[in-house]
Structure to design on (212 residues):
């Protein structure tokens, strides 16, 4: 599943630690979500989407592949 | 970076309680000269777990009994793996004891407790309806 967490975070000039603090999760979890290694729960997915002021389906694309970094 | 929370004391406290129980059993069965090393190792392990629980990473969150949903999932998966390996080891021990014509009950107890815990877990996590053969009543559709 592809997500736009990293793209949105960089657009807003946030570090992974700052995003983690805002979402109430660890920095390691933000890293795992961005790399596609961890799929967040539905409540966390909504928190992420609301934080970036986008819809969940805009933030997470079930059809897409996580790009190589 | 270190952090302090009540949850951080859970693993060290559990280690201390179980280790002290083991040391007490050794004291009764083998005497104080064997019990003291057990208690010392227990205390060192408890301090070690406490220090690990203060780390600001996944290991710290897992040993500190805190952490976010991913870290809790990692801990639960690790515990599940531990349970599976323990049961497998107990079953192998059971078979070895049978072959040796030695008492099998300690291994039988482990397997029995694990099986009972699994059934209790199924009941606690609300699958007892399907577990007992009833698929549950579907919600009525409105016309």
């Amino acid at each position: 599943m592809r997500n736009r967490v990293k793209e949105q975070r960089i657009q807003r000039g946030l570090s992974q630690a700052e995003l983690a603090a805002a979402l109430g999760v660890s920095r390691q979890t933000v890293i795992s979500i961005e790399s596609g290694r961890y799929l967040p729960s539905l409540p966390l997915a909504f928190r992420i989407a609301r934080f970036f002021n986008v819809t969940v389906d805009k933030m997470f694309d079930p059809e897409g592949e996580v790009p190589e970094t | 970076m270190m952090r302090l929370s009540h949850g951080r004391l859970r693993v060290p406290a559990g280690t201390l309680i179980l280790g002290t129980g083991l040391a007490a059993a050794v004291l009764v069965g083998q005497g104080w000269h064997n019990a003291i090393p057990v208690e010392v190792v227990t205390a060192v392990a408890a301090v070690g777990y406490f220090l690990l629980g203060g780390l600001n990473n996944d290991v710290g969150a897992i040993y500190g009994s805190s952490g976010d949903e991913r870290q809790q999932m990692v801990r639960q998966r690790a515990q599940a793996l531990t349970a599976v390996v323990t049961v497998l080891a107990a079953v192998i021990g059971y078979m070895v004891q049978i072959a040796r014509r030695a008492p099998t009950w300690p291994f039988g107890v482990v397997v029995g407790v694990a099986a009972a815990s699994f059934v209790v877990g199924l009941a606690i996590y609300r699958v007892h309806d399907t577990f007992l053969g009833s698929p549950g009543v579907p919600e009525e559709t409105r016309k």
